[in-house]
């Protein structure tokens, strides 16, 4: 499989938050953008991610059509993106394993951060369905992709000494029956 070419196509004028060569960060303003409201940051990012994934499929050897794409191809794409990552993930043998801020450099690889991959998959899941895909055949929501993301989260959590626990929402205090709410006396 060949990497994504280094020159952007006319349908990919934006880069994703993931550091991928071949994407530029400039945007062109056209006369039609004045008439319609510009898309939200999320919608723009989702479109860029969708275009990047489709470019990856076109450059795949042999080229893949979207209906042929499976969870295994999505995992291949995520592993491909790792080479452009900026997050140091320490191996078990590294003396800095489990340290969030190591005091010296080490040869451990740079990878895509779990949070970036998780957000990317969320946007691609939505884009797949918006572009005519059926939810039950969405390769971005496959069990293999969910398990891979969980594995990456656990590995990075241990390797970097950072907890990825979900934040718990504070529940509003429960008033005993018969007590009026504060400020209504």
TrEMBL record:
Protein location: Nucleus
This protein's UniProt keywords: Developmental protein, DNA-binding, Nucleus, Transcription, Transcription regulation
Biased composition (Low complexity): 1-16, 23-40
Positions of the UniProt region annotated as Disordered: 1-47, 159-185
Entry annotated with the keyword Transcription: yes
GO molecular-function terms, A-Z: DNA binding
Biased segments, Pro residues type: 173-185
One GO term of the biological process aspect: response to light stimulus
Stated family: Belongs to the plant homeotic and developmental regulators ALOG protein family.
Protein name: ALOG domain-containing protein
Biological source species: Iris pallida
Native organism taxonomy: Eukaryota, Viridiplantae, Streptophyta, Embryophyta, Tracheophyta
């Amino acid at each position: 499989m060949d990497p994504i070419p280094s020159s952007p196509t006319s349908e990919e004028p934006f880069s994703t938050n993931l550091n991928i060569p071949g994407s530029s960060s400039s945007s062109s303003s056209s006369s039609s953008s004045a008439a319609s409201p510009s898309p939200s940051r999320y919608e723009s990012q989702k479109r860029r991610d969708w275009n990047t994934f489709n470019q990856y499929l076109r450059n795949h050897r042999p080229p893949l059509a979207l209906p042929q794409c499976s969870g295994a191809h999505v995992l291949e794409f995520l592993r491909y993106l790792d080479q452009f990552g900026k997050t140091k993930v320490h191996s078990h043998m590294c003396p800095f394993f489990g340290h969030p801020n190591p005091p010296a450099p080490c040869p451990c690889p740079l990878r895509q951060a779990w949070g970036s991959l998780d957000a990317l998959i969320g946007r691609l899941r939505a884009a797949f369905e918006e572009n005519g895909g059926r939810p039950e055949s969405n390769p971005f929501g496959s069990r293999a992709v969910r398990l891979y993301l969980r594995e990456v989260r656990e590995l990075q959590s241990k390797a970097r000494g950072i907890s990825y626990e979900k934040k718990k929402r504070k529940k509003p205090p429960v008033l005993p029956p018969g007590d009026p709410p504060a400020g209504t006396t």
